[in-house]
Amino acid sequence: MAEMGGGRTRRQGLRTHLANIYRLVIKELRGIRADPVMLFLVAYTFSVSVYTVASGASTEANNLTVGIVDEDRSDLSRQILNALNPPLFKTAELIAPDRIDAEMDAGRLVFVVEIPPNFQSDVLAERQPSLQVNVDATAMTQAGNGAVYLQSIIAQEVGDFAARREAATASPVNVVIRARFNPNLTSAWFTSVMQVINSITMLTVILTGAALIREREQGTVEHLLVMPVVPAEIMLAKIAASSLVILLAAGLSLVVVVGWGLGVPIAGSLTLFLAGAGLYAFSVASLGIMLGTLATTMGQFGLLAIPVLVIMQLLSGSSTPMESMPVWLQYTMQFISPTPHFVAFAQGVLYRGAGIETVWTPLLAVAAIGAVYFAYALSRFRRVIFGA
């Protein structure tokens, strides 16, 4: 009988905790609804920001400006000139040798190809003549990609001309490249989804931390001290309310902005992604509360959150591959931050259509790091807010 009474008491206690969390979540949602600036920030970040970054911040080589200094005036030089066509390059323009520096200094030309005299005759005589390509490397990504394309085009045209046929010269190996998951290598397919992930990270931290700081500044947090609630209930309510708003906005952004607006195909299960995003939101929301306990004003919270968010996003694999980082930094970020694991999970689900049997490992890592964040944030919350 004592065991039955104890079990009934535990169930009643659990129902009480859940009821308290539910009421606190409603309070947090009403607080978010009453903040039009925050609502506008969420709407803007998951709509206009995602669309403009994906459609405007392209790393592809398009409409590159190129000039030709043709000192040979031969059939081969004209063939090279005619091969530089849109959309990869703008229509190439002939310039005089003394205009090279002026055109590149003014930023009007990214590339200048100098074809020396007797270039065609040297090619036919198999003398291997030199051809100079000047590159404005201030636009680093465009210059690097464009230089590779330019070198390939020139080599192709010279090879065709030397062989006196339009097909490529014979090769012992026929290399066929097939790009999976992004056949045309369109950068918007990558940047749009990564922008959604970055927005989840940024806004979850901001919403939870700002909610705590706002209550501390307005003095309403003292009201919670006299209520029959425990610190864990308050934290879970703030995390649940912020995560719910962010996940709703992220789901709409993936369907409306990324899917319909940008035409990016979502290969995997949106439900699985949102479930993983919920686990990730729990982790970064705990981080937001921890930062909120370290700061006493909204200004301090902003100054504290900015470097944390920048490091988490730049070293997460969403901007540059993890493999391009030093090995020690890769292990450090994967140990202290849930973001690299969530990026790997999101790329597997949304790009490659992976199922739970493939992406359970990064989800487990996110859950483990989130548990550590939550435990430390709860201890800080008890000590700073409740004085325990």
Characterization of this structure:
- With 388 residues, the protein is mainly α.
- The protein has two domains: 241 residues, no CATH class; 98 residues, abc type-2 transporter like domain (abc type-2 transporter like fold, 3-Layer(aba) Sandwich).
- The protein contains 15 helices and four strands.
- A four-stranded mixed β-sheet has the order 2-1-3-4, covered by helices on one side.
- Strand 1, helix 4 and strand 2 form a beta-alpha-beta unit.
- Helix 4 crosses helix 7.
- The longest helix is centred in the N-terminal third of the chain and has 32 residues.
- The chain is elongated, with a radius of gyration of 29 Å.
- It starts with a helix and ends with a helix.
Short description:
This protein is mainly alpha-helical. The chain is built from 15 helices and four strands. The chain has a four-stranded mixed sheet, covered by helices on one side.
Strand content: under 5%
How much is the average pLDDT? 85
Question: How many domains, as an integer?
Answer: 2
Strand order of the largest sheet: 2-1-3-4
The total count of strands amounts to: 4
Radius of gyration: 29 Å
The low-confidence parts are: 165-169
**Helix-strand sequence:** HHHEHEHEHEHHHHHHHHH
Task: Summarize the topology.
Elements: H1 2-33, H2 36-46, H3 48-56, E1 66-70, H4 75-83, E2 93-94, H5 100-105, E3 111-115, H6 119-124, E4 132-135, H7 140-163, H8 187-218, H9 221-225, H10 231-261, H11 270-294, H12 298-314, H13 327-336, H14 339-351, H15 356-384
Parallel strand pairs: 1-2, 1-3
Antiparallel strand pairs: 3-4
